[in-house]
């Protein structure tokens, strides 16, 4: 890990590139965002975007969802991974929150809801325009952050802490920026030559052909 990298400076071009870029989930309001974030865990954003419109036609808000039964919800999400638990989680969230305006807006309150961990809560806060209280660490960040050298290991919680330790809160959107980099450039087979981070990337510096 190249300790000489000043990550506060080095990460800024990446933050600038992806500043204000919307999350790939195609939501229209915070209610839809919460539902889609829960559904997307261990599934793909693309798949959730495909199934969501019909779901929201029938359950357009938290109030409608709070009155739903598992049998009523199931046909809309039965091809989503882990749909059994997600059905329970969504109904429980709706019954606790009841109305869209009561959706929590802090990380501590969001992670108390079933099916919402730190990553999901951080996504909800970002997309709601709330100040970052943590760093989004999804599967792309787990792959890319250790390659860059800004973090080590494969534990999302530890990676989040490491990034929070080297960057000030105003740069904590780096998680989503790193995720976008992972989706577009730093794929499982990375396109290092076109990556704007290759001058500071530990993986590139180690593996580039001299």
TrEMBL record:
Keyword Iron-sulfur carried by entry: yes
Cofactor(s) demanded: [4Fe-4S] cluster
Residue ranges of domain HhH-GPD in the record: 39-184
Annotated GO biological process: base-excision repair, AP site formation
Record's keyword annotation contains Electron transport: no
Gene Ontology molecular function: 4 iron, 4 sulfur cluster binding; DNA binding; DNA N-glycosylase activity; endonuclease activity; metal ion binding
A Pfam cross-reference name: HHH
Keywords, sorted A to Z: 4Fe-4S, DNA damage, DNA repair, Endonuclease, Glycosidase, Hydrolase, Iron, Iron-sulfur, Metal-binding, Nuclease
Similarity annotation: Belongs to the Nth/MutY family.
Protein name listed in UniProt: Putative endoIII-related endonuclease
Organism: Solitalea canadensis (strain ATCC 29591 / DSM 3403 / JCM 21819 / LMG 8368 / NBRC 15130 / NCIMB 12057 / USAM 9D) (Flexibacter canadensis)
Lineage: Bacteria, Pseudomonadati, Bacteroidota, Sphingobacteriia, Sphingobacteriales
């Amino acid at each position: 890990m190249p300790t000489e990298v000043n990550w506060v400076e080095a990460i800024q071009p990446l933050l600038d590139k992806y500043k204000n870029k919307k999350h790939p989930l195609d939501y229209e309001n915070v209610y839809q965002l919460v539902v889609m974030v829960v559904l997307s865990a261990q599934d793909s954003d693309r798949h959730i975007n495909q199934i969501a419109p019909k779901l929201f036609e029938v359950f357009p808000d938290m109030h409608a969802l709070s009155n739903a039964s598992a049998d009523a919800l199931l046909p809309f999400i039965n091809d989503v991974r882990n749909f059994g638990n997600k059905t329970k989680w969504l109904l429980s969230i709706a019954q606790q929150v009841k109305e869209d305006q009561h959706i929590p807006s802090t990380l501590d309150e969001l992670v108390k809801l079933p099916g919402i961990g730190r990553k999901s809560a951080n996504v909800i806060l970002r997309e709601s325009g709330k100040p970052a209280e943590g760093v989004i660490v999804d599967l792309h960040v787990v792959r890319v952050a250790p390659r860059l050298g800004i973090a080590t290991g494969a534990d999302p919680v530890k990676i989040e802490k490491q990034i929070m330790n080297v960057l000030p809160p105003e740069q904590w959107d780096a998680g989503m920026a790193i995720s976008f980099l992972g989706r577009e450039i730093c794929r499982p087979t990375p396109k290092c030559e076109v990556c704007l981070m290759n001058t500071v990337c530990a993986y590139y510096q180690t593996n580039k052909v001299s």
